Every structure is written in structure tokens, then in C-alpha cells.
Amino acid sequence: MTDKKEQILFVALELFANEGFKGVPTSKIAKQAGVSEGLIFRHFTNKQGLLEAILGLAVEKTKTIFKPIIAEMDPKKVLEKTILFPFSIKKDEYHFWKLQFKLKWELELSGKEKMQPLIDKLAWAFRELNYKNSEQEAVMLNHIIESVSGGILKEGLETQLALKDFLLNKYDITPKN
Q1: Which of 37, 66, 106, 177 has the greatest number of beta carbons closer than 10 A?
Q2: 101 φ, ψ to 5°?
Q3: Residue 12 CB: number of other CB atoms within 10 A?
Q4: From CA 134, how far away is CA 97, in angstroms rounded?
Q5: Separation of alpha carbons 54 and 51, rounded Å
Q6: How far is CA 30 from CA 5, 26, 47, 100, 175, in A?
Q7: Which residues contact 16 (CB under 8 A, 6 or more apart)?
Q8: Tens digit of pLDDT for each residue in 84-114?
């Protein structure tokens, strides 16, 4: 990827995360990225193409992030890694993840396909741990983790630490430091 294309993506991501997809014209992206608006169209065809490129990055990033959880064969570790995941988000990636949440609501994107491998792995872990309603437990924990992640992005990491401790305790997990 060229430096200019990467700059366009970075600026678009930040603007979309802060102002919404619909509220940001390509002219503003071009100006802040220090490129011509035509270059945006050459690289991405249109604003929708730019958004699709960002969403493609999200799919790849999600796969990479969840890979260690999906590969884990100890069901307790699956739960631990899932619970600890939102607390490992790097601050410099907040714009990226904030945009994912914003798009879910603004453009009514479910993102379910990105999360399904994690939900399936959680359901497996809960079955292995003899939970009666493993599928519902998996969906519930996924929703909680999504909510905790949103809380971290909106209000800061510190605001969600009590929930982390609560979830670790609820599932009888003692993380190794």
C-alpha cells in the first residue's frame, strides 16, 4: 500500500470515527490527508469504496486478534482470553475500533459474520465446561465483551475494570500475570 493511500485511510478512519460516515465529504478527507480529491477516487472509486476498504481492514484485524482465542484448546483459557481481550486494545487503535461501533449503528451493519467464529469458540468452551445453555452463554458473553469494549472506547479503560474482575470471578478464572 502506498504512503498516500495509507494516509487517506488513516484520515478517513479518524474523521468517520469522530464525525460519522455520512457527515464527512471526500473533500474534507482529501484536505486533511494532504492529497487531491481525485486521488481518493483513483484509489477507492468513491466514498463507499473507501469505507469498504476500512471495513476490509476490520475483518482482517478481527481475524488476527481472535486467532489466539480460536486456536486455544483449554476452555477456561478461551474464556480468559476473551474477557481480557478488550483490555488489550492499544490506545492508538481506539479510532479504528470506535469507527466499527459507530458504523454498526449509523449504517446498520451487524458485524455478526466477524464475531461468529468467536461465538462458536465460546459455545464450544461452555459445552466443554458443562454449561447447560452453552450457545446462549456464548452469545451473552460476546454481548458483554462488546459492551465493555464500547465502554472502554467511550469512557476509558478504568471505567470497565470492575466488569473485568466481575467476569473473571463469575467464570472462576484466575489469570496468570
Answers
A1: 66
A2: -65, -45
A3: 26
A4: 28
A5: 5
A6: 11, 6, 11, 21, 46
A7: 24, 51, 54, 99, 102, 103
A8: 999 998 888 887 787 777 777 666 665 667 7
Q: Whole-angstrom Cα distance, residue 67 to residue 156?
A: 25
Angle at 109 between CA 140 and CA 10, to 5 degrees: 110
* CA proximity to 164, closest of 70, 85, 106: 85
Q: What is the pTM of this model?
A: 0.80
Tell me the per-residue pLDDT of 147-172, one tens digit each, with 9 for 90 and over: 999 999 889 999 999 999 999 999 99
Over its C-alpha atoms, the chain yields an Rg (Å, rounded) of 18
Residue 123: exposure state from Cβ atoms within 10 A (0-12, 13-18, ≥19): buried
